[in-house]
Amino acid sequence: MDGTLVDTEPYWIAAEAPLVERFGGTWTHEQSLEMVGMGLEDAARILQAAGVRMQVHEIIDFLTQEVLTQLRDDHVPFRPGARELLRSLRDAGIPTGLVTMSMRSMATEIVELIDFEAFDVVVAGDDVTRPKPFPDPYLQACEALGIRPQDAVAIEDSPNGLRSSVAAGIPSIGVPHIVSLVGVGAQELWPTLDGRTAEDIVAFHAAHTEQAAL
């Protein structure tokens, strides 16, 4: 969701440094980039190590509320082509799932802002025991959709997200945003989703399936 569907990664980054500084610590932009796509519990523990004297759940609640406040003030910045691709997939009758490490409360708010029923399944950070980069979130989504991982396509913007989908055995497309995805394991890297349709997804999957069979 964050960075692939909506451009919220800068909001998370903007919330982290002031929190660390409130407790007398220092926090760099490079440290924020390392946490892109990470599960919130893992991110909270890193912030604790940086000096934030709060419980994990308190840090998660704080960051989530900070990002939600920015979204309500600034409106949701959807990534180029993301909604249009979802619409194309829905029109083609292709089931879709959202796999995000944000809390379900945030995922629900984002999904409700899309002007059509975009997803059959939502797997959020508080729905899984092991977050990305473990394969569990994607495997859980495939199970909920009633499909095999090899019959799915994952679209990710973060290294942790790609590691999760690749580990799950899902053909994966990387759409880099804030951090590079070179060498992380995506079968293809697309510079943007703008102009992409369900036909592109079907063609990608067919090409990967053919290659895997060789």
Question: What does the model show?
Answer:
The chain is mainly α and 214 residues long. It has two domains: 9-74, DNA polymerase, domain 1, CATH 1.10.150; 82-213, HAD superfamily/HAD-like (Rossmann fold, 3-Layer(aba) Sandwich). It is 48% helix and 7% strand. It has helices at residues 9-22, 29-34, 40-49, 56-74, 82-91, 104-112, 136-145, 159-167, 198-213, and strands at 97-99, 121-123, 154-156, 172-174, 188-189. The protein has a three-stranded parallel β-sheet with strand order 3-4-5, covered by helices on one side. Strands 1-2 form a two-stranded parallel sheet. α1 (9-22) packs across α4 (56-74) and α3 crosses α4.
Chart the SSEs and their pairings.
Layout: H1 9-22, H2 29-34, H3 40-49, H4 56-74, H5 82-91, E1 97-99, H6 104-112, E2 121-123, H7 136-145, E3 154-156, H8 159-167, E4 172-174, E5 188-189, H9 198-213
Parallel strand pairs: 1-2, 3-4, 4-5
Helix pairs in contact: 1-4, 3-4
Termini separation: 33 Å
Strand order of the largest sheet: 3-4-5
CATH topology of the largest domain: Rossmann fold
Q: Major beta sheet, specifics?
A: 3 strands, parallel
Strand content: 5-15%
Find the CATH superfamily of the largest domain: HAD superfamily/HAD-like
Tally the beta strands: 5
Given as residue ranges, the uncertain stretches (5+ residues, pLDDT < 50) are none
| Shape designation | globular
Helical element count? Answer: 9
Question: CATH class of the largest domain, anyone?
Answer: Alpha Beta
Radius of gyration: 17 Å
The appropriate CATH architecture of the largest domain is 3-Layer(aba) Sandwich
- What structural class should be given to the helix and strand makeup? mainly alpha
**Arithmetic mean pLDDT:** 92
How many domains? The number is 2
Listing every helix as H and every strand as E from the N terminus to the C terminus, the arrangement reads: HHHHHEHEHEHEEH
Helicity range: 40-55%
